[in-house]
Amino acid sequence: MVNRLIIAAAGSGKTTYLVKQAMQQSDSVLITTYTIANELEIRKKFIKLNGCVPHNVTIQTWYSFLLQHGVRPFQGVVLDDKINGMILVNEKSGKKYNGKYGPVYYAEEDYRNFYFADGMKMYSDKIAKFVCRCEKGSKGRVSQRISRICPKIYIDEIQDLAGYDLDIIKSMLQVDCDVTMVGDPRQVTYHTHNEAKYKKYADGKIEAFIRNECKKIDCIIDKETLNDSYRNNQSICSYSSQLYEEYGETGTKQFEVTGHDGVFLLRPDDIAAYLEKFKPMQLRVKRTVKVNDGYAVRNMGEAKGLTYDRVLIYPTGAMRNWMMDHSKKLPPKTRAQFYVAITRARYSVGIVFLIMIKAQMLKVWKIICNLTRVLYIK
């Protein structure tokens, strides 16, 4: 049994790595990831590299995996009713009791209202907690069964798992199967749910969870295998790395030179000409941010996992403040959004930066020059 947590940098080819590792296995392999989009990307990579998904490989979203292997075979441990699928929620679900969310265990109807919507469809943010109850009620048989069915398990986007998901991970690390977890803790733009459990390990602190909560379990923590980007040039890698100095600087394997390479500040007056000349993808935090509607645009969170030759970022006030003074800490979600936006580009990143007068321009220029070698007034 070999368990491994791999910390992957943006653009480091983690999907390719997972697929190549899976293709080398003769045992049954499970690859699970949070979103449907990621599941499709994994399937596409198998087809590109192998022509098809091998017969011994199963690819599932995390929720689908939990429903098939954690809920349905063991739901009788908790209740007798038939569960009819899942309803996806983006905030805390279920009925409140005494002003708080929580089941009243001695009242069957209240219990159902906590876990299920009408038609016995389970709330997505309750699935992991339900599986943990099945695991406890069956004395560990959930994870034991999974290990017999899938001796090799790969968990993609591990940074998106939270709360009771982490208890499931801990259980799987202790049974007789190989678990490889891969993710970039700098790209936490989604969570499977907003459960208070293990709140201190939210926002990408999966390494701390493994070190603190799984310290008696053998698990290799690998920060080297996927630390070089095949997407970003070194200027982009160096600048984005300053957002997460605790992970060190990302290297690059992308050395193409185009004549406009690196990270640039852009005055608002120059946006139209810049868009016309370089055709970058515009990235913003939300739809209310004003952009040039004549050119392509995406929200930063939606751009996760995508690659563009060039991007133009419309930063928030907090992002601009950090650019001028790195001691000003960004909120976790904002920091992740900025990191994702910067690391979408192969060749160049433009950042819109409002500078009103020459004195301010000089101040900003001096501050930026002191902080980084890769950001220039252009």
- Give the overall average pLDDT: 87
Could you describe the largest sheet, including whether it forms a barrel?
6 strands, parallel
Radius of gyration: 23 Å
Number of strands: 19
Number of helix segments?
13
Q: What would the principal axes of the Cα set say about the shape?
A: globular
Strand % is 15-25%
Low-confidence stretches: 97-109, 366-378
How much helicity do the residues have?
25-40%
> What separation lies between the terminal Cα atoms?
54 Å
Class from secondary-structure proportions: alpha/beta
Strand order of the largest sheet: 3-2-9-10-1-11
Description of the structure:
- By secondary structure, the protein is of the alpha/beta class.
- Helix content is 34%, strand content 19%.
- It is built from 13 helices and 19 strands.
- Helix 1 packs across helix 2, helix 3 runs parallel beside helix 5 and helix 5 packs across helix 7.
- The longest helix is centred in the first third of the chain and has 15 residues.
